[in-house]
Amino acid sequence: MVTRFAPSPTGPLHLGHAYAAILAHDMARAAGGRFLLRIEDIDRQRSKPRWEAQLIDDLRWLGLSWDGPVLRQSDRLPEYRAALADLWARGLLYRCSCTRRDIEAAVSAPQEGAEPAHGPDGLIYPGTCRAAGAPRPGEPLPDAVLRLRMDRAACSCGFDEIGPRHAGHHRITPEEMIATVGDVVLARREMGTSYHLSVVLDDAAQGVTHVTRGEDLFDATRIHVTLQHLLGLPVPVYCHHPLIRDENGKRLAKRDDARALSLFRAEGASPADIRRMVGL
Ligand code: GLU
């Protein structure tokens, strides 16, 4: 078994991160497997070295150890671009110049009262740039926002989930992907890649067998499994865990600095206290 913790260094680790990290760590250790650490720092604007240094310090303080070197997504841009070039050459991507406002305007055109449909990434893209943004024969991968042609990319596939809320086998159909996900962005402006593409390539490169992460990402898993099929990568087992919530039932976010591990540390909490607080 190979598991991983994949934080973004865009703020302090809070109790929710501690829960995710301990869960992935303990699962691997209980099975005699490997636990890996990956820094998801493709968002160059928001990722900061000081957050990375602090999260590594927090994880060590929690008593977690990881196997092998830390993988940093910012070191893997050539791999992401190579996968995009492959998909581009296969006619599966197109350039998109729509702003969020363009998309809102296109989908909110009067449609007999139908509510605009939302997918895992927000409004389902209406396909405005599909024809004009298509690759011309032999054209190299452009440095642009690139969307996946879901009508060509989607396949019948599935994945196994072992998390508490959605345990079982989940089937994915092309019809459902077209209707409820649509043409997702695989290369974002100023990133040259996207969360969806990077996470799939990294999990495969690191040999991750069990992806443990928050339930908020359950819906995105269909995108990841579709990409794994397109790119000939293995499909890991998924384990989506409940999110740690505050006393009002609101999920913790990075800005909830009130629950930052560093604050609990400063107040004298022990790693055992943190485990107790998150129920592990
Ligand atoms: N980097 C993501 C986060 O900080 C986690 C991605 C994943 O586990 O797939 O929430």
In words, what does this structure look like?
This protein is an alpha/beta fold and 280 residues long. It folds into two domains: 1-75 and 245-280, Rossmann fold (3-Layer(aba) Sandwich); 76-236, 3-Layer(aba) Sandwich (Rossmann fold). The chain has helices spanning 15-30, 49-61, 77-89, 100-107, 150-153, 174-180, 195-205, 221-230, 261-266, 271-278; strands spanning 2-5, 34-39, 71-72, 93-95, 118-119, 122-123, 146-148, 157-161, 168-172, 185-187, 210-214, 237-241. A three-stranded parallel sheet has the order 1-2-3. A three-stranded antiparallel sheet has the order 4-7-10. The chain has a two-stranded antiparallel sheet with strand order 5-6. It is globular. It starts with a strand and ends with a helix. The model has no long low-confidence stretch (mean pLDDT 94). The structure holds glutamic acid (GLU). Glutamic acid (GLU) binds next to loops.
- Series of secondary-structure elements, N-terminal to C-terminal: EHEHEHEHEEEHEEHEHEHEHH
Q: What proportion of the residues form beta strands (DSSP E)?
A: 15-25%
Stretches with pLDDT under 50, minimum 5 residues: none
Portion of residues within helices? 25-40%
CATH class category label of the largest domain: Alpha Beta
* Spatial shape: globular
By helix and strand content, what is the structural category?
Answer: alpha/beta
Bound small molecules, deduplicated:
glutamic acid
CATH superfamily of the largest domain: HUPs
Distance between the termini: 20 Å
Q: Helix count?
A: 10
